[in-house]
Amino acid sequence: MNNIFSQLDLAFWITFIAASVRTAVPILLAALGEIFAERSGVVNINLEGQMLFGAFVGFIVTYITGNLLIGTIVGATAGMLLALLFGWVCISKLANQIVAGITLNILALGITSYFFRIIFGVTTKLPHVATYQNIKIPLLNQIPILGEILFNNNIIVYLTIFIIVISNIIIFRTTFGLKLRSVGEYPRAAETMGVNVKKMRYIAVGICGLLAGLGGAFISVGILGGFMENITQGRGFIALAIVIFGKWNPYKALGAALIFGGAEALQVRMQVIGIQIPYQFMLIIPYLLTAIVLIITGRKAIAPAASGIPYEREKL
Amino acid sequence: MSHNYSLSMKNITKKFGDFTANENVNLDVEKGEIHGILGENGAGKSTLMNVLYGLYKQTEGDVYINEEKVQIDGPLDAIAKGIGMIHQHFMLISAFSVSENIALGLKSQKEPFIDMVEIKRRIKEVAEENNLTVDPDAMISDLSVGQQQQVEILKALYRGGEILILDEPTGVLTPQESEKLFATLKMIAKKGHSIIFISHKLDEVLEICDKVTILRRGKNVGVVSTENISKKELAGLMVGREVTLSIEKEDIKPGKLVLDVSNLTVKGSTVASSLKSISFSAREGEIIGIAGVDGNGQRELVEAIAGLNKVISGTIKVNGEDITNKSAKEILKRKIALIPESRKVVGSVCQFNLVDNMILRQLYDKKFNCWGVIKYKEANIYTDEIIEEYDIRTAGKSICAAQLSGGNLQKLILGREIHLDPNLLLAMHPTRGLDVGAIEFVHEKLLEQRKAGKTIVYVSTELEEVMGLSDRIIVLYNGKITGIVDQLEASRELLGRMMAGEYIDDIKEASL
Ligand SMILES: Nc1ncnc2c1ncn2[C@@H]1O[C@H](COP(=O)(O)OP(=O)(O)O)[C@@H](O)[C@H]1O
Ligand SMILES: [Mg+2]
């Protein structure tokens, strides 16, 4: 025991928190996207599939071009394209969003696994690419503790922070955001005020896919530098939970994502330290924690009123 | 004589699939005129206006604004052409503030950001010009329906609407609020706006409109000036046959006490609709009318008695037995029948056929249930009987309930509930949205039950009906009873004041 506690020094905590942030980033990106989608009235359950697409395409393109940035951008775009397909099925074809989302998730898992094997064959030696380098922000990274946690990260982490701030402004301060929220609350009323409901929903779902794809690409080329089947491991679903827990608000979603990221990082560290609990149990921790937090807070959360309901102008 | 119409709709036809909601309808409105569109529920009034507002695309026909043919490609286009519409169901987002609702869809001076300062300034300005009282910072969910309507009017005027459409605007107002609305509309019309006022209430149309276009089953049946037409003639045009406008009722001595509600407190969907310690009773052979503006606790009251809403405190007794917080099934067993507010959502299972709907409430009855298997032979016979007795117009008993028209579905529910041989019949808005014939039928059946010594709790927002049918009238306001009056005592004016929150004792005291 003594041995274990002696490892819990300052350096441990700093790396732990830094790891929490890193783990939180992909989920947070997807959750931010989902906030846009749900605020517009579309529950994008296909989030997981879009992340997986982003992770896969991001990796492949990076592997081929050797350029991380291009890989990431193309990966995010792939997520967006899948989201637009989902959007077409749900927004234009008025399909049930849950059914469409789950179907496309299965499709995404199948496609990515299949092509991964086609391209690389069945091998134990997984292909690798270099990951993003950390960028130290001069001066700020000198701040004790905080500097190491916040100002010594890679570009995607900084980008994520930027996206949180921007999302909040877009959703709550702009005319675009007002229209976005209105179509998620009462699409018919929005329509009578001249808002194009379907267009707004397409834009929101597109943004959602872009961010989910970016989050996925961050997992493959940002953290791991590789790809494997089902690499996202249900993070898209965790992001859905985080949106509820974060009450459809970017800043609150940040807090929620950090809790999950923390639990995940803790789980990894507990395994490393060698605490005598079966590792399968530790793997559960972040998911269990998410479920508990949801049970406690979910009840009070008020979703956009028209969330999940398809809209058709001439339908009663 | 050459007219200068600010709006003309010529030969408008609108089809939904095979169904024709408007057929060759014409409408001409002059500048500064208040033009009524009168018609029964389902006559196609809203459809016509939705075409004008660009929400629906007409199958045939043309629209002219200031004598010029126009194409309206959606609400944005309609707004740009000076048309403003206040919909039957308010188009306000309750999670937003007043100013956010007004700002929605407008270009701002500070794109991409919302210019709240400017919006609020303009709201105040427009409100003052038009004598409206609107607080820009209030949340819609905190406003009364009357206030919400003012926001709707302001929203249209803010956008520079020259032609203002109001679709059944008084349905949710107290008589006094209606008067205030009429004053506002007259003032707006005087400024040169054209107003289209939609209603199925004759008195209102006669009071406020200069001219009326009458629709019946989607077709024009006439345009008349309100100066030289009587209420009765207007009713005849609207319905297409002679109608009696009054309700004939026999005198009956009330029998023993049946329903006894004391200090009933129930949590409702809003604060205003939560019941706050109310007490009343009802006897055999009595119809108790519950009047009030929608959302003042009517639904909560009925649901509490029917076992669909939890009672926090107080008691409900029926025939001496305490049924407070008993399950809906237990209460049903005590023969308490319910005609719910919504025929389609609560009153029936739309996708079930008529037989299944008919026996829905008697599934536990040995008559239709043999060890858990439904006795369809009995059920079919029973259904046929009710279809016959209640004159339900249907293509057969195996069609699903969704295919029935509103009136026929309501007859089905009415028949089903009355056949339970209830001790107490709870009827919520049983005539809402029905045509005159069906309304008369419902009234007849309810009065028959009264004559048979049953007790009826009758909830309605239609004051004429409440006053005509009820022996006593209870007015609910903000979840409290503002007064209980006898039928003979009741007047629109008195009920209206009570519906707006004045207590009967105060009103009487003031008039002494
Ligand atoms: N979007 C729609 N789809 C199908 N039927 C409709 C639609 N809107 C209205 N209708 C039908 O058209 C008829 C006229 O409806 P409506 O215009 O709302 O009548 P009113 O406003 O006069 O009560 C009704 O029978 C209604 O069921
Ligand atoms: Mg209507």
In short:
The complex is a heterodimer of chains A (316) and B (512). With 316 residues, chain A is mainly alpha-helical.
Radius of gyration of chain A: 20 Å
Largest sheet of chain A: 2 strands, antiparallel
Number of strands of chain B: 22
Bound molecules: adenosine-5'-diphosphate, magnesium ion
Q: CATH superfamily of the largest domain in chain B, please?
A: P-loop containing nucleotide triphosphate hydrolases
Structural class call of chain B reads alpha/beta
Spans of chain B of 5+ residues with little confidence (pLDDT < 50)? Answer: none
Number of helices of chain B: 18
Number of domains of chain A: 1
What structural class do helix, strand and pairing data of chain A support?
A: mainly alpha
In total, how many domains does the architecture of chain B comprise?
A: 3
The third-level CATH topology of chain A is: ABC transporter involved in vitamin B12 uptake, BtuC
In CATH, the architecture of chain A is: Orthogonal Bundle
**Beta fraction of the residues of chain A?**
under 5%
Biggest sheet overview of chain B: 6 strands, mixed
Supply the CATH class of chain A. Answer: Mainly Alpha
Spatial order of the strands forming the largest sheet of chain A: 1-2
Name the shape of chain B in a single word.
Answer: globular
Oligomeric composition of the shown chains: heterodimer
